[in-house]
Amino acid sequence: MSTTADQIAPAHDEHHAPRGLLRWLTTTNHKEIGTLYLVFSLTMFFVGGTMALIIRAELFQPGLQIVEPYFFNQMTTMHALVMIFGAVMPAFVGLANWLIPMMIGAPDMALPRMNNWSFWIMPFAFTLLLSTLFMDGGGPAGGWTLYPPLSLQTGAAFPFVILAIHMMGVSSVMGAINVIATILNLRAPGMTLMRMPLFVWTWLITAYLLIAVMPVLAGAVTMLLTDKYFGTSFFNAAGGGDPVMFQHIFWFFGHPEVYIMILPAFGIVSQIIPTFARKPLFGYASMVYATASIAFLSFIVWGHHMFTVGMPLAGELFFMYATMLIAVPTGVKVFNWMATMWRGSMTFETPMLFAVAFVVLFTIGGFSGLMLAIAPADFQYQDTYFVVAHFHYVLVPGAVFSIMAATYYWLPKWTGHMYDEKLGRLHFWCSAIGVNVLFFPQHFLGLAGMPRRIPDYALQFAGFNMISSIGAFLFGLSQLIFLWVVIKCIRGGEPAPAKPWEGAHGLEWTLPSPAPLHTFQTPPQIDPSEAHG
Amino acid sequence: MAEMATMTMSDDDLRARQRRGVRRTLLVLVLLVLAFYLGFIWLAAQR
Questions:
Q1: String of b and e for A124-157 (b: at least 16 CB within 10 Å)?
Q2: pLDDT over threshold 90, residue A102
Q3: How far apart, in whole angstroms, are the C-alpha atoms of residue A459 and residue A133?
Q4: HSE (CB half, 13 Å, CA atoms) of A518?
Q5: What is the pLDDT of residue A139?
Q6: What percent of chain A has pLDDT over 90?
Q7: Mean of the pLDDT values across residues A211-238?
């Protein structure tokens, strides 16, 4: 029997709510769980970032300077797992928790107890995952893609890594079920699907992607486990299996996973740009259809990750053209963001700076993605730093910048204080310069043939690697400014009005700042002109 | 039409309707997750 939001609401009345640590352990309130997710995500961002800096410190110069090659491989593997499953995905789930109920006029998430459970699985999963670094034989070192037979050579850590991935998957799936159940059932009367804010739409579609692909990852890693310990041969050629089949299954999960990390970012940017352009979003309906098209296409392009495994020509052509097709709905989105800004009364507060940088820099990642989609050219790019540059452009100034934009945008609503605008802008410029110095030279390294996932390299790659590492430290250190801005804003500052942004629209801005613990216990009246701006 | 109906409902009726909807959604999604998980392992085993 499920427990729904309105049954739970009286149970955490302020008078009876536990205090201290127990409050956070037992909370079923969407705002508190959202905060937990965001704090967890920021912590993991710094853990994963430290790993990235270890990688870049080693690559500052050719030769082996700082870490053993095997530890370097553990760092590349763990950095990816921590950033994807620990930083980016939980940040979006945290934002969903905070914002979706407020945006659709619901009192809470549809399944609040499950919400609590889906968060509290995460710290255990990541403690387990990170603890493998201290086990005999070290942590996983075969890359986050866990390709067999290499990943099966992991030492004692292997079953712990598989369990940790299962736990992350269970958490994500529960979060996705909650998002879908909330959006489909708890919208205030009058909040039709086509009146929902774009952030809610993109999360609804993302949640369906999660439901479809997280079980596929779980299936793949379950099969790895049975291959290693229970004598099956799913991926063992000697037993009649096929290691390439793992790659097909993995990337059937892995490509939609990319969109799981970018569709909510599209939603955030679609909320922020109209606010600071002081114009309604251009082409709302086309944004919704473009998001749905991208989600559909994400299921039929997985083969572009494995052009070099030796698939039939027809397969290469299919995956190549299907991948290129994604540029069409993505182009629609970029066009709509630019059309929204066109002749708008724009101002460039920190959220807008991050949002505009997102549009420009994500598009660079999109273009290098198109280059990689060309099958014959991909034979040259496969497993080079060009790929590293491409996906980091999509994920760092893409997904991560959108999360930072969202934090600055909604921080006044969460804390009741305005953040320090000067420090915010300083954080933006250091990050924007740092990220380009860090990742742009990696395109050149890749085109010149430097392979990814290596701790040492030939002398001709030294210059660009040094520049890239300097950018990494600039970007990494500038995140301390972000941490300081957030802490400072939580502790105090100029009181924030209910609607701190002149051009903002949507139900969350009708609430006082900080938003009270319980909101929309009685469904609000929806003003169609205010619904999605 | 369904949207119009919710506009005129009492709060209690609205909440009851939402509860039923949440349970139905939960059931369908859990079944979907199980189908994807077991389905892919079954497909891989057919090879």
A1: ebbebbbebeeeeebbbbbbbebbbeebbebeeb
A2: yes
A3: 31
A4: 15
A5: 95
A6: 94
A7: 96
Q: How many domains does chain B have?
A: 1
3 state SS of A346:
coil
CA distances from A331 to A266, A313, A359, A362, A529 (A): 12, 28, 11, 11, 27
Phi, psi for A384 (deg, rounded to 5): -105, 175
Contacts of A377-384 with CB under 8 Å at 24 or more apart are A378/A304, A378/A307, A378/A308, A379/A307, A379/A308, A381/A446, A381/A447, A382/A307, A382/A308, A383/A451, A383/A452, A383/A453, A384/A445, A384/A446, A384/A447, A384/A449, A384/A450, A384/A451, A384/A452
Which chain A residues are Cβ-neighbours of B32 within 8 angstroms? 211-212
Q: Identify the burial level of A188 via C-beta atoms within 10 angstroms of its C-beta, where 0-12 means exposed, 13-18 middle and 19 or more buried.
A: buried
Cα–Cα distance measured from residue A27 to residue A18, given in angstroms and rounded to the nearest whole number: 9
Q: Is A7 on the interface with B (CB under 8 A)?
A: yes
Encoded tokens for A301? 């392009």
DSSP 8-state symbol, A326: T
Q: How many other C-beta atoms lie within 10 A of the C-beta of residue A496?
A: 20
pLDDT, mean of residues A339-346: 97
Range of the domain at B15: 2-46
Q: Do A249 and B44 touch (CB under 8 A)?
A: yes
pLDDT of residue A2: 46
Burial of residue A299 (CB within 10 Å: 0-12, 13-18, 19+) is middle
Helix, strand or coil for residue A384? strand
Provide the token pair at A239: 């037993």
Check if the beta carbon of residue A163 is closer than 8 Å to that of residue A198: no
SS (H, E, C) A438-483: HHHHHHHHHHCCCECCCCCCCHHHHHHHHHHHHHHHHHHHHHHHHH
CA distance A198 to A355: 15
Fold classification of A27-531 is Cytochrome C Oxidase; Chain A (1.20.210)
The residues of A annotated as belonging to the active site are 79, 108, 144, 171-172, 255, 257, 259, 270, 304-305, 330, 333, 452
> Is residue A487 classed exposed, middle or buried when 0-12, 13-18 and 19+ CB atoms within 10 A define those classes?
exposed
- Using a CB–CB cutoff of 8 Å, tell me whether A223 touches chain B: yes
Q: Which of A189, A190, A219 sits opposite B40 (nearest CB)?
A: A219
Domain ranges of chain A: 27-531
Asked if residues A350 and A419 have their Cβ atoms less than 8 Å apart, the reply is: yes
Distances (CA, A) of A321 to A260, A297, A318, A374: 22, 11, 5, 8
Q: What's the average model confidence in pLDDT over A356-380?
A: 97
pLDDT of residue B8: 75
Separation of alpha carbons A432 and A416, rounded Å: 27
Residue A148 has pLDDT above 50, yes or no: yes
* pLDDT, mean of residues A406-433: 98
